[in-house]
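Worked example (supplementary).
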Amino acid sequence: MTDSPIRVTVWNEFIHEQNQAAVAAIYPDGIHQTLARGLRDLLGSAAVIQTATLQEPEHGLSAERLERTDVLLWWGHAAHDRVGDQVVDRVQQAVLAGMGLLVLHSGHGSKIFRRLLGTGCMLRWREAGERERLWIVDPGHPIVDGFHEEYLELPQTEMYGEFFDIPPPEEVIFISWFAGGEVFRSGCTFRRGKGKLFYFRPGHETFPIYHDAQVQRVLANAVMWAAPCGASYRPAARQVVDPPERLTER
Amino acid sequence: MTDSPIRVTVWNEFIHEQNQAAVAAIYPDGIHQTLARGLRDLLGSAAVIQTATLQEPEHGLSAERLERTDVLLWWGHAAHDRVGDQVVDRVQQAVLAGMGLLVLHSGHGSKIFRRLLGTGCMLRWREAGERERLWIVDPGHPIVDGFHEEYLELPQTEMYGEFFDIPPPEEVIFISWFAGGEVFRSGCTFRRGKGKLFYFRPGHETFPIYHDAQVQRVLANAVMWAAPCGASYRPAARQVVDPPERLTER
Amino acid sequence: MTDSPIRVTVWNEFIHEQNQAAVAAIYPDGIHQTLARGLRDLLGSAAVIQTATLQEPEHGLSAERLERTDVLLWWGHAAHDRVGDQVVDRVQQAVLAGMGLLVLHSGHGSKIFRRLLGTGCMLRWREAGERERLWIVDPGHPIVDGFHEEYLELPQTEMYGEFFDIPPPEEVIFISWFAGGEVFRSGCTFRRGKGKLFYFRPGHETFPIYHDAQVQRVLANAVMWAAPCGASYRPAARQVVDPPERLTER
Amino acid sequence: MTDSPIRVTVWNEFIHEQNQAAVAAIYPDGIHQTLARGLRDLLGSAAVIQTATLQEPEHGLSAERLERTDVLLWWGHAAHDRVGDQVVDRVQQAVLAGMGLLVLHSGHGSKIFRRLLGTGCMLRWREAGERERLWIVDPGHPIVDGFHEEYLELPQTEMYGEFFDIPPPEEVIFISWFAGGEVFRSGCTFRRGKGKLFYFRPGHETFPIYHDAQVQRVLANAVMWAAPCGASYRPAARQVVDPPERLTER
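After joint prediction of all chains, the assembly is encoded as:
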C-alpha cells in the first residue's frame, strides 16, 4: 500500500546472446534488456527496472544492490555452475527477508531455485518448435489479471514435460499443453520466509518468447504480486525468549 | 491495477445491538457502522463503504447491490437460519464470479460460509473474557502488511478452540493462543471460483473488538487483498467445445 | 492399521445401461458391477464390495448402509437432480465423520460433490473419441502405487478441459493431456472433516474405461487410501467448554 | 500394499547423553535406543528398526545403509555442523527417491531439514519446563490414528514458538499451546520428490518425552505413513525426449 515504485532487477547470465548468432538476432542487447523494456512499457512509473549479468563483479548482485531490489528476475541456462555460492547465499537470504523472485524457463536448473525448493527441479524436454497452450487454472489470481482468453498460445516453443521435480506448489496458475503429448505446470508460486516466488516456464532463447505481449503481461503482473509486503517486524532467528512473569514466579 | 475505488458492503444481522443494552453500549448504531467507519478511516478514497442488514428487503443484498459490490463483509450470530436461501445462492454465485468475502467471528456458522466450504464449520467455545494472542504465522502476507509486532493481543475475548471443522485452508495467517489452554486458526484464506475468502476470528459482540485499531487494520488489508482481480474471461459453465479441425478431419 | 476388511459401496445411477444399447453392450449388468468386480479382483480379502443404485429405496444409501460403509464410489450423469436431498445430507455427514468418497467422471456434477466442494464444479467437454494421457505429477502418492510408466494412456475418451471450477485441490496426482488441445486436473484429492475425497476423471459410459486394468488399479489404490483412519474421538459440534480452574478462579 | 517389513533407521547425534549426567539418566543408552524400543514395541513385525549415530563411519549412513532404509528418523542438536555435507547430499537424494524422513525436535536446525525446505527453519524458544498441549487439527490423518482425546498433553517441555520459518506445510496435524503464551505448528508434513517428511516438535533431551506412550504412538504412525509408495518408475533427471512421430514428420 505504498506509492514508491517497485525496484526491479532483471538478471541474465548473458551468454547465448554473445555466442550464438541466432540468439543475438532475437535479443541483440540481451534477454535482460528485452525483459526490462517490456516491464518498463507495462509498469511505467509503478516500477524502476535495472539489469545485472553474470559477467559483472559479484554477478551484479552485491549486497548493496540486493538491498535496493524488491523483485529479482532470473534467467540462466548454460552457466548455472558459474554462479558463486556466496551470491546464491545472499539471494536466498534476500528472498527469506521478503524480496520477490521470478525464475524464468531454464532457470529451473539454477542454484538459487534448487536451493529454495530443496528438490532436483528436473523435467523432460524436447526442442521441436511445437505449439504450446498455457491454460489458466486459477482465473482469480492477480498474475493473470486482465487476460481475456482461457489460455495463452505460443506457436513454437521448446517443450518441458512432467514429472517436474518441485515440491507441491502453493498455487498452480498455468498448465501447459504441448502438441507432442506432454503437460507441464508452467506457472507456479511458492513462499519462502517472507518472500514470494513465481516460476514461469516460457522463454527459450531461440524463440522470440519475451517479445510476446502476453508473456510480458504475465511478468508485469508477477512483479506487482511478488513485491514485498506483510509484517514489518523481523521474523526470528533462533531466539531465546525470556520467561513471562507468571512462569518465572513458579 | 485499476484506480477505481473498491466497492465494499458490510453486512450485519443487527439483532444483538437492538435487543441487548450491553451490546448497544458498545455498538450504538450497529456493528456494521463501526466496521464501516474503521474501513473508511483506513482506506480513504481507495474504497467506498456501504452497509446492509438482515432487516432490509432481500436483507439488503439484491442482485443489483451484489453486482456493485467488490468485497462483502459478513457478521451474523443469532439469526443464521433467517437468511433466505435465495440470498445465500446469490452471494455464492457472486463469490464464484470474483467477489471477495470476509467472514467475521460467529459468521463461521452462517449458511454462506458453510455453503462455500462444504463442512460443518463448528468449533469449541467459551465466554470467560480471557486473553487472546493472535500470532502471525505468514509474515509475508498482504493481510498483515504494516504490523510491527509478532502478534496482536486482545485482553478480553470469547474463546474459540480447535478442532475447527473447515477444509485445510489455502493459507493460515494467524494462530490464536488463549489463556485457558486452547489454540485456533484465526485468520484463514480460501479460494472458491474466482473469489477470495478470508475468515477472521475476533469480533464478539460484548467486547469492543471492532474498535481495536489492529483489528481494523487487518480488515482494511483484507479488503484490499480480496478485491476482484485475475482473468477477465468468464470461466466455464458446463460447456460443449467444438472439435478442433484436426479432430474433425478424422 | 486394522486388519478388518474395508467395506466398500459402489453407487451408480444405473440409467444409461438400461436405456442405451451401446452402453449395455459395454456394461451389461451396470457400471457398478464392473467396478465392483475390478475392486474384488485387486483387493481380495482386504475389502468387501457391495453396490447400490438410484432405483433402490433411499437410493440404496440408508443410514444403516452408510454406517457400514468405509468408502463410497459415486457414478452419476443423467439424474443428478433425482438424488434426494436427504440422502445427500446423509452422505455429506458420513464423509465429515470419516467415510472416504471416490467421485468418478461425470459425478463432478453431482449434488454431493458440489455440496462438499462449495463451487459449481463445471468444465469444458467434447465427445470426439480422442486420445488421453494422464501424466503422474505426484509420483510418491499411494494412489499411484505400482505404476511403472510416467503416464496412463486411454486411446479413446470423452474430453474434459480446464477451467475446472473446483477449489484448489489438496493434492493433484494426474494431469491429463488431450489430443484436441486441452489439459485437465484428472486426479485430485480433498479433505472434508475427517473424510478423504478423490476425484478421478476417466469413465465415460460409451468407452470401456472401467474394464481398463490401469484404471481399476488407480481405483483400488484409492479405496485403500480413502479408508477411514485418524483420531477416534468425535470432533466437535459447536460445543461449550467449561472454564478451566485457573480461569474460574478470577 | 506390500507385506515386507518397513526398514527403519533411527539416527542420533548421541552427544548430550554422553556429556550430561541429567540426559544420561533419562536416556542411558541414547535417545536412539529409546526411540527404537518404542517403535519395536508398537510396530512389531511390521517394521525392522536399526540405529545409527554421528560417531560411526559416515555417521552410520553409508550409501548401502540408506539403500536399505525405508524411513529415517533424525535427532540432532549440538553438532549440526559436524554432519558431513556428503552425507547430507546422500540423505537428500534418498528422500527425493522415496525414503521417508521424520525430523525430531531440535532437528529443525539440521542441515538436512534446512536443505530440503530451503528456509532458515528458525523459531523462538524458552526452557522453563512449561506445560504443552498439542491440539489435533487434522483428525482424519493417519498420523493421529487411534487417538481418543482432542489433544496430547506434556506436563513439562521446552517451548518452541512461532514464527517458525518453514515453507507453508502440505499438512498441519498438531498445533501446540504453551502455558507461557506461545503457539507452534508442532506436526507438519512436506513432500519432496517421492519422499514424505514429517516434522514433530516434542523431544527435548532433559525431559523424558520419548518415554511418553502418546509420543511413541505418533512416531509409529508416522513411520507407517512415511514408508515409500507410489509409482515405481524412476522420475526424470533432466531428460531429452525423442520427438513423437507426428512431430518428426513435419
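Two points are worth noting when inspecting this output. The helical segments of chain A are 16-19, 21-26, 31-43, 63-67, 85-96, 111-117, 213-226, 245-249. The beta strands of chain A are 6-12, 47-53, 71-75, 100-104, 124-136, 151-161, 171-178, 183-192, 195-200, 239-240.
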